[in-house]
Amino acid sequence: xxxxxxxxxxxxxxxxxxxxxxxxxxxxxxxxxxxxxxxxxxxxxxxxxxxxxxxxxxxxxxxxxxxxxxxxxxxxxxxxxxxxxxxxxxxxxxxxxxxxxxxxxxxxxxxxxxxxxxxxxxxxxxxxxxxxxxxxxxxxxxxxxxxxxxxxxxxxxxxxx
Length: 161
Prior knowledge:
CATH 2.40.50; 5-stranded mixed β-barrel; 5 helices; 6 strands; globular
């Protein structure tokens, strides 16, 4: 009986936390987000990352305006402070039956909102030990890209995976 009460209380607290973190409506503005160097997923002019906005994890979707920004993000080895002009909104749920629920997946990682827009970058020095470890991981990952294929992908997956 005590286990059921404790588990029910834990679920209730989780739901309350989730409701507090999730935005109700979309807002347009300028947002400052900090992104660690190994969190970037570059895909042409569209980049995606997990960052921190007001001590909350957010999904960042950045539309690049120049090739220079793309090159910078592909070789970044320090935390980046982004100033994004765009929209912050809650993650969208699955729209079709039996579709992969990306919102549920991200919520399990502690991400409840997303920021989409264009922005400018500014490099920051790594401040904490965890930041330093992320910087080291990014430098090693960039070094592996110089290896021949398939050795580069093996090293990425097996050593940094």
